[in-house]
Amino acid sequence: MTAAETATADRYSRFAELEARGYSPLYDDWCSGVSTDGEVLALLDTLPPARRQPVLFLAAARFVGAPLGDYGTFRPFVVAHWSAISQVMMRRTTQTNEAGRCAVLLPSLAAISADEGRPLALIEVGASAGACLYPDRYAYDYTPGRRLAPDGGSAVPPLACSTAGGVPLPAALPDVVWRAGIDLNPLDAGNDDDVRWLEALVWPEHAFRAERLRAALALIRADPPLLVRGDLNDEVEPLVERAPTDAVVVVFHSAVLAYLDPAGRARFRDTMQRLAGSRARPVHWLSHEGYGTLAGVAGAMEKAPGEADGRFVLQHNGTTVARTGPHGQSIEWL
C-alpha cells in the first residue's frame, strides 16, 4: 500500500472498530472490508482527503443504490459505480440531521432557560435541514428517568435515550421563541433530492431513525426555521445580534467542528468564549462533539490514553458536563 492508502485504511479500520461495531454490523463489515482492499482504497485516494470520510462514502454508495448485502456484494457495486459515487462525494457533504441529539441537549437547554429566567433563542451551527432546532416539539423517553412531551403530544416518535450518572432531567420542556441555523449548504426539507440524501445518511439498521427523520422533516416543512447559508465563523455573531433581546441565546452544534481546519476551529472557539463571557446579553454555548475537537478550551475533556470509545463529549461554555452517544442514544452525566 502507498502511504496515502495506509492512512485511509487506518481511517476506515478505526471507524469500523470505534463507531460502527455493535451499532451497525453492516457498516462494520463494509469498512473493515475497505480497510484491507487495495483497489477500493486506491479509488478513495483519488479524492481530496476531506472527501474520503467513511460516513460520506457509505451514504454516497447507498444514495447511488448500493445493495444492503455483505462486503462481497458491496465491493463489486462500488467498483462498477465508482464514477457516480465519487461525483456524489464531491458534490455532497456529511449533513446527518439527527433529531435524537436533542435528547442529550435538552437537560442543558432547560437548565439554561430556568437559570436565566428567559425563553430560548436557538442558533445551530451546521444545521443541515434544521431538525435539531425543535427540542420543544419532540417527546422524550429517558431510561431510567421520565417521559416528556409537548402539550398536545408530538407527531415525531419519542426520542429514546439511556441515562447514567444522575442526569438533571427537566420537569417540563423549555419555551423556544426563536430558532435559526447556519450551514454552508442548508438542506431543504421540501426538496426530494435533499430528503433522499438525508435518508442515505441514516445507518442501514436504524429504521427507527429513518422514521423519526421523516416525521421531523414534516414538522420542519410545516414551520420552517431561519436557515442562513454561509460560514459559521462569519455568520454566528450577526445571528446572535438578530435574536430577540428578551430571550437567552444558546449557540449549539453537534458533529460539526471536526469538519473545520484547526484555524477555523480556533477562530470559532475564541468567538464563542468571548460571546459566552460577555455581559452585554446572555449567550450560552453548547458543544456536542468528538473527543479532542475543542483543543485549547479550559475544562475540555480529552480521550484517556488507550481508551476506545466512540462517544461524544457535551460541553457547556467549554466545561465538560457529559459523555453521550453520537446520535443522542445515551447520556452519562459527569
Describe what this molecule looks like in 3D.
The chain has an 11-stranded mixed sheet with strand order 3-2-4-11-10-9-8-7-1-5-6, sandwiched between helices. The chain has 334 residues and is of the alpha/beta class. It has 11 helices and 11 strands. The chain has 2 domains: 3-91, no CATH class; 99-333, no CATH class. Helix 4 crosses helix 6. It has helices spanning 3-20, 25-34, 38-44, 54-64, 71-80, 82-91, 102-116, 192-200, 207-222, 232-242, 262-276, and strands at residues 120-125, 140-143, 147-148, 159-164, 176-183, 226-229, 248-254, 283-290, 312-316, 319-324, 330-333.
Write a short abstract of this structure.
This protein has 334 residues and is α/β, with parallel strands linked by helices. The protein has eleven helices and eleven strands. It has helices at 3-20, 25-34, 38-44, 54-64, 71-80, 82-91, 102-116, 192-200, 207-222, 232-242, 262-276, and strands at residues 120-125, 140-143, 147-148, 159-164, 176-183, 226-229, 248-254, 283-290, 312-316, 319-324, 330-333.
